[in-house]
C-alpha cells in the first residue's frame, strides 16, 4: 500500500486545448525519485503506477500500484484516475477524469507527468545525466547539461541567459567544474553590486595611489581567477567606460591595472557572463557595445524558466526544503502542495520558490507536512513572515553575494533596507 497523504474530493477537469505541432510525436515526461525519462504515448491506454505490471513504472512510495491511465485522443490526452490512494492532480485540482494537452502537468504522489507534443525530428532524449548541484532532471535541463559538458572543453567566453532566479550562476559553476580549469579558482562578480566608480578596479586591479582611497595595490578579479573562470553576473549593467577594457581582455590582449604605467599581462581566464536582460536591446539603446556583445554571444546557454519546466518544480522544492531544514525543521510536501507549486508561474523562479517554501515550512499548521494551505498562505507574502524567514546567516550570504552592497542585498531578500541592516547586526 502506498503511503497515505490525504484524500480531498476528486472532480472532472477539462483544459483548453493548445494545438500540438503538425505531425507531432506525443510523450510523457516522467520525473520521480530516480530522475526523469521520456515515455512515448501512442494508441491505447498507458497505465502508470508502482506495479511491475504497469506500462509506466514510477518509483515513489506515495504512488499507487495502478495509479492513473493516459490515453492519446486525437489532439489531446485523456487522463483517468484508477482509484489511487493519494489522488491524481491536474493543475491544482484532484480529478477522476481530465483532458490535457501539451504542457499539462499531472501530479501523482510526489512525482510528476508532463504531457509533451513535439516535432518527431526533435523527439530524442539527451544523452547525459543532470549536472551536479543543479536540481531538476527534466529533459530541458538535461539538454542544458549536455550543452554545458560540450562547452566546458573550450576556452571561449560563454553567455548564460535566463530570467532572474533561474540559476545562471549554478550553470556557470558547472561549466567550470566540468572543464579542464576545475582545479583553478572560480571567481564570481555581480556587476550590478559594484559601485560604478570602482568597476574597473574590481575587475582589473589598481596601483597604489591610482585614485583617492587606493592605499594599497589590488590585483583585481582577472588576476584572482588566473588559470580558472571569471563569472560576471548581470553583464548588461557593465558601465560603458569599462567595456572596451573587458573586450581587450577577451580578445586575448593584456589586462592592465588602473593607474599602471606601461603594458599589463595577458589574461589566462575563461570568462562566463550572465544576463537576464536582452543585450540586443541594450546595444540598440547605446548602453552596450556591439563588438563586446558579439564577442560574448559566440557560445550561449539558455536556462529555461521554471514555468517552462514545471516537472522540475517538485524536485527543486524537495532540495530547497532539505537546505532549509536547519532553520525550519524537516518538512515534506503533500501531493496537493506539489500540485499547487507546479501550477504557479513563478516570475521570480527558484529564488521566489525558495522564499515561498521557507515561509510555508516555518508556519506549517500540520507538523512536518507542508500542505496546500501552507503554500497559499506563504504566497500572500505577509511582511512578518518575510522577516522571520530571512535568517541572519542567509542575510550575510546575500550581503556577500552582492559584494557588500546593502541596498542590493535587501532587494534580493525582499526586505526594507533598514530591516535588513538590523538583521545583519543581530
Keywords:
single chain; 426 residues; alpha/beta; 11-stranded mixed beta sheet; 5-stranded parallel beta sheet; 20 strands; globular
Blueprint (SSEs and pairs):
Layout: E1 11-14, E2 24-32, E3 35-40, E4 45-49, E5 56-57, E6 68-73, E7 76-81, E8 88-90, E9 93-100, E10 105-108, E11 111-119, H1 139-151, E12 158-161, H2 168-177, E13 186-190, H3 199-204, H4 221-224, E14 229-233, H5 243-250, E15 254-255, E16 265-266, E17 270-275, H6 279-285, H7 290-296, E18 300-302, H8 313-328, E19 332-333, H9 335-343, H10 349-362, E20 369-370, H11 372-379, H12 383-389, H13 392-401, H14 406-413, H15 417-425
Parallel strand pairs: 1-9, 4-5, 12-17, 12-18, 13-14, 14-17, 19-20
Antiparallel strand pairs: 2-3, 2-11, 4-6, 6-7, 7-9, 8-9, 8-10, 10-11, 15-16
Helix pairs in contact: 8-10, 9-11, 10-11, 10-12, 13-14, 13-15, 14-15
Strand count: 20
| General form | globular
Strand content: 15-25%
Low-confidence parts lasting 5 or more residues at pLDDT below 50?
7-18
Gyration radius over CA? 24 Å
Helicity, in percent? 25-40%
Q: Any overview of this molecule?
A:
By secondary structure, the chain is an alpha/beta fold. 32% of the residues lie in helices and 22% in strands. The protein has helices at residues 139-151, 168-177, 199-204, 221-224, 243-250, 279-285, 290-296, 313-328, 335-343, 349-362, 372-379, 383-389, 392-401, 406-413, 417-425; strands at 11-14, 24-32, 35-40, 45-49, 56-57, 68-73, 76-81, 88-90, 93-100, 105-108, 111-119, 158-161, 186-190, 229-233, 254-255, 265-266, 270-275, 300-302, 332-333, 369-370. Strands 1, 2, 3, 4, 5, 6, 7, 8, 9, 10 and 11 form an eleven-stranded mixed β-sheet that branches. A five-stranded parallel β-sheet has the order 13-14-17-12-18. A two-stranded antiparallel ribbon has the order 15-16. α10 (349-362) crosses α11 and α14 crosses α15 (417-425). It is globular. Mean pLDDT is 82; it is low at 7-18.
Amino acid at each position: 500500500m502506498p503511503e497515505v497523504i490525504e484524500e480531498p474530493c476528486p472532480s472532472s477537469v477539462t483544459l483548453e486545448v493548445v494545438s500540438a505541432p503538425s505531425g507531432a510525436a506525443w510523450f510523457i515526461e516522467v520525473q520521480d525519485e530516480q530522475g526523469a525519462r521520456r515515455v512515448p504515448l501512442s494508441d491505447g491506454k498507458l497505465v502508470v503506477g508502482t506495479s511491475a505490471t504497469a506500462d509506466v513504472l514510477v518509483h515513489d512510495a506515495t504512488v499507487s500500484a495502478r495509479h492513473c491511465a493516459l490515453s492519446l485522443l486525437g489532439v489531446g490526452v485523456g487522463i483517468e484516475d484508477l482509484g489511487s490512494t493519494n489522488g491524481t492532480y491536474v493543475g491544482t485540482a484532484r480529478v477522476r477524469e481530465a483532458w490535457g494537452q501539451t504542457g499539462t502537468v499531472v501530479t501523482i504522489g510526489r512525482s510528476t507527468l508532463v504531457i509533451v507534443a513535439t516535432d518527431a525530428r526533435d523527439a530524442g532524449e539527451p544523452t547525459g545525466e543532470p549536472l551536479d548541484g543543479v536540481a531538476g532532471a527534466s529533459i530541458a535541463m538535461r539538454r542544458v547539461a549536455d550543452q554545458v559538458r560540450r562547452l566546458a572543453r573550450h576556452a571561449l567566453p560563454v553567455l548564460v541567459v535566463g530570467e532572474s532566479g533561474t540559476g545562471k550562476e549554478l550553470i556557470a559553476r558547472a561549466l567550470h567544474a566540468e572543464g579542464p580549469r576545475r582545479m583553478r579558482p572560480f571567481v564570481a562578480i555581480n556587476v550590478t553590486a559594484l559601485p560604478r566608480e570602482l568597476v574597473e578596479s574590481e575587475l582589473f586591479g589598481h596601483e597604489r595611489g591610482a585614485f583617492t582611497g587606493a592605499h594599497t595595490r589590488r590585483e583585481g578579479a582577472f588576476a584572482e581567477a588566473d588559470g580558472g573562470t571569471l563569472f560576471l553576473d548581470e553583464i548588461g549593467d557593465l558601465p560603458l567606460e569599462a567595456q572596451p577594457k573587458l573586450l581587450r581582455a577577451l580578445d586575448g590582449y593584456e589586462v592592465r591595472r588602473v593607474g599602471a604605467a606601461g603594458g599589463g599581462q595577458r589574461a589566462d581566464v575563461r570568462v562566463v557572463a550572465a544576463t537576464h536582460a536582452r543585450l540586443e536591446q541594450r546595444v540598440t539603446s547605446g548602453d552596450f557595445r556591439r563588438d563586446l556583445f558579439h564577442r560574448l554571444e559566440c557560445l550561449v546557454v539558455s536556462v529555461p524558466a521554471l514555468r517552462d519546466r514545471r516537472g522540475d518544480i517538485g524536485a527543486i522544492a524537495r532540495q530547497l526544503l532539505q537546505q532549509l531544514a536547519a532553520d525550519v525543521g524537516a518538512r515534506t510536501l503533500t501531493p496537493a502542495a506539489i500540485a499547487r507549486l507546479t501550477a504557479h508561474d513563478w516570475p521570480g523562479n527558484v529564488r521566489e520558490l525558495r522564499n515561498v517554501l521557507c515561509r510555508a515550512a516555518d508556519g506549517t499548521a500540520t507538523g512536518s507536512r507542508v500542505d496546500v494551505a501552507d503554500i497559499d498562505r506563504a504566497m500572500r507574502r505577509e511582511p512578518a513572515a518575510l522577516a522571520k524567514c530571512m535568517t541572519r546567516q542567509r542575510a550575510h550570504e546575500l550581503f556577500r553575494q552582492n559584494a557588500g552592497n546593502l541596498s542590493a542585498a535587501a532587494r534580493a531578500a525582499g526586505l526594507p533596507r533598514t530591516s535588513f541592516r538590523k538583521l545583519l547586526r543581530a
